[in-house]
Amino acid sequence: MSTVIRFSGDSGDGMQMVGNLFSESAAFAGYGVFTFPDYPAEVRAPQGTVAGVSGFQVHFDSQVVTHQGDKCDILVAMNPAALVAHRKYATATATIVIDSDNFTKEAVAKVGYDIENIVEQLHLEDCEIVEAPVTQMTLNAVAECGLERKAALKCRNMMVLGITLGMYDISIDYAKKFIEKKFGAKNALVSKANIAALEAGENYARNSHLVGGSNHQVVRALPSGVYRSINGNQAVAWGFIAAAENSGLPLFCGSYPITPATGILEELAKHKALGVKTVQAEDEIAGICTAIGASFGGSLAVTTTSGPGLALKSEALGLAVMAQIPLVVVDVQRGGPSTGLPTKSEQADLLQAMYGRNGDSPLVVLTAHSPADCFDKAYMAAKIALERMMPVVLLTDGNLANGTEPWRVRRVADMPTITPPIVSREELADKAECFNDNGLFNPYSADENLARYWAVPGAEGLEHRLGGLEKRPIVGSISYTPEDHAAMGALRAERVARVAEMVPSIEIEGADEGDLLVLSWGSNVGKVSEAVAQLRNEGVKVAHAAVELINPLQRGVVEAISHYKRVVVCESNSGQLASYLRSILRHGDIRSVADMGAQPFTVDALKMEISANLN
């Protein structure tokens, strides 16, 4: 049973909390879960207006879920503005749960509709409309708690949570424990009121026979293990913490707050007990420069940003390329250009990550495809940066950063080792190329992987300087000769190319050759994978592969493409990965399914686009 439910209401109605608690309760019940918060860009638009509507979508199923779902089967609308704003995200026959107390003639007119004709105007004729008096039921449920009306009305979201959990016969116990922990003894009345609203909502659903899945036998979707709900920003932070633990280095994050990346900095700041150091810098340039300094001093250094901030970091990022500084830059992509769409998601920073620096300054570009995968890719990005002494850009996006899914808790000891090339004078004593004729350390001497030996400041006998001017190979002194510049440029490119051996080869879903190969990357992977799987079940000869390492291009991509007559790349931009592949490959037919709508693809739309390209 695959079900999508969307909660929508004013920014102050608590829809994000309802969505999170519903998804976590469903996960505890054994469902696979994937979420999609949909925030308004405005801090707090006028109440009851379309601009201020906040949404939270939950896709849950009795098997593993890999994306946030398409159109919702259940739409909860706390007011007319929420219904108007999010009707387009509901199926033609969806169940619409409304707070009927808020659907007054005046409230409906405020969003430009007539209460007498709103069903026809919004094409709700085939929908099942549940008119639940949520506001009055909430006031009745919490009356004995003695709260003022304003405080009592804040419990409406728990009434809605109780109704929707009751519809699917999902226990409210997890939500009750959360409420008790959140408010505690100091706010016992508030805790009691919210639990009363929650229980009343569940009773209403059962007594009104609002059942969506009570007869459904849930088979636990996930393999046995210890799980918790995690969003992409948390996962990135924890991946870095795990990498610091396994590398034996302190973790430093220098960042400037920017939506939707700020959550990584906030999460890291909570873990001082694990040796994590964080600096909230005064701007993006200071953020990356503090990280470069920390890396030079011997730390695992990271900086986090979104597209506008990545542009500001470009000069310092070029310095990290030149000086071969280990550094991870996390770009949580949002819509652009300029300040763009802060709360919406795109994949439009790919070419900026690839080429957005002066001169030929290549670096590694890695991508994550789900909230949980953000942990693995953050760990991998740190491993590459530390072991190969280079900056790495990790691309996530707003959908991954704020979306949640169950994540299996890992033991750090079971993860791949990380061995930075930190050296002492004694360890290099038998390597003559590491020292000049005067016995001074050559800072660009390197190991067999072309990783510069990491001489941490303070290491006796390895004193050196690094900077942003072009160098002589190995020696590292400033050089302006054409030969040295060409040699160092070729070295920088070769260092990046060799990273391909550190990342597993691409995996093909479907036949190893045929008429059509569909490629995807980032948060679209789950949707594209399902669309292709459905087409194969319908007899269409099509295969799918997810690209995780874009620069250098992941092993197996070129060979895989050569086995198909046509290639289609699905991405949320104007076709950037497709353009990149056309520029480096000789395959004659690489096409693009691109969407710049700042909303996730739908499976049905992908199937239509893929089929059109097949024919």
Verbal overview:
With 615 residues, this protein is an alpha/beta fold. 36% of the residues lie in helices and 19% in strands. The chain has 22 helices and 20 strands. A 7-stranded mixed beta sheet has the order 9-8-10-11-13-12-18. A 6-stranded mixed beta sheet has the order 2-3-1-4-5-6, with helices on both faces. A 5-stranded mixed beta sheet has the order 15-17-16-19-20, sandwiched between helices. β19 (564-571), α21 (576-584) and β20 (590-594) form a beta-alpha-beta unit. 50% of the residues are buried. The model is unreliable at 214-218 (pLDDT under 50).
Give average pLDDT, whole number: 93
What level of helicity do the residues show?
25-40%
How many strand segments? 20
Evaluate the radius of gyration. 27 Å
Strand order of the largest sheet: 9-8-10-11-13-12-18
Class of secondary structure makeup: alpha/beta
